[in-house]
Amino acid sequence: MSFESLDSHSRAILGVLSFIQPDKIPEALFEPESSTALPASLKFCSDNFLFSPAIENLVTLELIKRDKASRTLSLHRPVQDNFKSSMNPEQRQQAFNDATMLVSTAFPHRDSTVAQLYQMWAGCAVYEPHVIALKDNFKKELVANPKFTVPQAYCIMSNMCQRYLLELRSFEVLADLLDVNTMALATLRESEQTINIQGSLTSHKGQLLTHIGKAEEGVKWLRKSYDIRSRDVPFHPRESAWAADNLAVGFATLNRFEEAAKWHIKARDHFQEWSNHQTERKGEWPAEIMNSMGLGLVWSGQPTPARELMDGALEKVNSVEPYNWAVAASTHFGLGTVERYEGNWDAAEAHFIEAQNLWLQRSRILSDPFNGACLYRLGCTALDKGQPEDAVRYLRDALEVTKKRKTEMVAEHMRGLFKLSEALEQEPRYAEEARATRDEAESLLRQLVPDASNAGKESTYDSLVCILWR
Predict the structure, then answer these.
(1) Residue 25 pairs with which residues in a beta bridge?
(2) In what order do the strands lie in the sheet with 65-67?
(3) 199: nearest Cα among 168, 234, 164, 242
(4) Is 74 helix (H, G, I), strand (E, B) or coil?
(5) Which tens digits make up the pLDDT trace of 174-215?
(6) pLDDT of residue 76
(7) Where do the DUF7779 domain residues begin and end (predicted)?
(8) 90 and 160: one domain?
(9) What is d(CA 286, CA 328) in angstroms, rounded to the nearest whole number?
(10) CB under 8 Å to 427, separation ≥6 — which residues?
């Protein structure tokens, strides 16, 4: 396979295509809103009279395919590999940097007024495979050439993709991206290792650990993230608010509720420090922080203030556009927890159903821990209401979710087993299965917490689950 006949424009494009996912490459990747976002070697892409012939040249030579209907490009992996092999180290570095700049610009960036990317999932899904391809290629290049580096945009892009993967609960992919981004950060000049990059990277690491049952370690990273944000000059209270809220969630997951409350208050105060200087919604604080504060309160035995906060959070979500379905779902889940705590089984069930419906209407990810938690809580409320058959059905469905992710969701899986054993005990014909299920739950509990007591209580198992879907 020879590339000698390629002109400089075609070579620049093929260089980019060689470092990203070979399928479903949007032509929009080469069409940023501002031509200033184009690397120097790709400035010609802003002129269709230059860009289109370069693409057609690659198509004619059968190096790439172009689907004009979907406006996507594709190529075979051997073409990618052979073209990369034809480049010297400097050319490979340039092509990687160019690809990174384009994908970083195209990947949706979080609006500074919100903590999540939920409204941008569709765009994230388009470019996430290309971020992962760049990550994999960086690892390979670094092995072959220890002097290989990344542009600052790589770390920014990875941080945004990490946020998306956190929301997807794609924990295994996220863990690898975090590790490689940490390696990449070390290749940047010290002046490029900004507070924002370091603060986000450490935050995502801490949140991941908290979500997968390693909250003790997670809290250390979340505290580090907050400390990094605190050093920013000028100080950005809104970013520190999100960092404080994440740390509060970590402490609440560890059942250190007094510390969680202090950090939730700090999160609220930081956000109000920012909002007090705005022309609209002066002095307000977001539903996300209100809801997570409420979760900490209800699990510390304070349902009344928890309800007040969550009612306020739901009112806020319902009055703001665009509608944040994820926060609405989380708030309904929290209100279901409050209602169940107070013995209002029907109201609790209604909130858990609404939480699940809101989540699945938008995410459609049945294996998500949040969906598993909704199913688990519906099983609990069915048992509360004296409906063991419904409870068994819900709890079996919840276990189907956790079974697929047992290494990440040990606590969630064993609490599902424990509660299923309680439901099965209501039916004499299931007595043998009930005993086996309880034994499995208690065995997992002893593995996770060797000195655990009260293995026959629901709260023992719940206390080990991340507070966000406890």
Answers:
(1) 73
(2) 25-26, 72-74, 65-67
(3) 242
(4) strand
(5) 999 999 999 999 999 999 999 999 999 999 999 999 999 999
(6) 96
(7) 1-91
(8) yes
(9) 12
(10) 388, 389, 392
DSSP letters for 235-294: --HHHHHHHHHHHHHHHHHTT-HHHHHHHHHHHHHHHHHHHTTSSSSTT---HHHHHHHH
Q: Are residues 50 and 85 in the same domain?
A: yes
User: Is the separation of the CB atoms in 180 and 187 below 8 Å?
Assistant: no
- Residues 196/240, Cβ–Cβ less than 8 Å: no
CATH, residue 376: 1.25.40
Taking alpha carbons only, the member of 189, 220, 227 closest to residue 205 is 220
Note whether 25 and 78 are same-domain residues. Answer: yes
How far, in whole angstroms, is CA 113 from its chain's centroid?
18
User: Which positions ≥6 away from 125 have C-beta within 8 Å?
Assistant: none
Nearest in space to 102 (alpha carbons), one of 163, 172, 12: 12
**pLDDT number for residue 238:** 96
Question: Which residues does the chain have with pLDDT short of 70?
Answer: 112-113
* The domain boundary residue, chosen from 185, 201, 233: 185
CA angle 425, 430, 434 (to 5 degrees): 55
Stated length of the chain: 470
Instruction: Tell me the C-alpha distance between 276 and 334, whole Å.
Output: 28
**Which tokens go with 446?**
């002893």
Task: Give Cα separations from 440 to 108, 250, 412, 462 (angstroms).
Answer: 43, 28, 13, 16
Range of the domain at 406: 365-470
List, in sequence order, every residue forming a beta bridge with 72; answer none if it has no partner.
26, 67
Q: In this predicted structure, what is the pLDDT of residue 346?
A: 98
Under 8 Å between Cβ of 246 and 203: yes
pTM value?
Answer: 0.95
Within this chain, do residues 369 and 457 fall inside the same structural domain, yes or no?
yes
Q: Distance between CA atoms of 183 and 149, rounded to whole angstroms?
A: 10
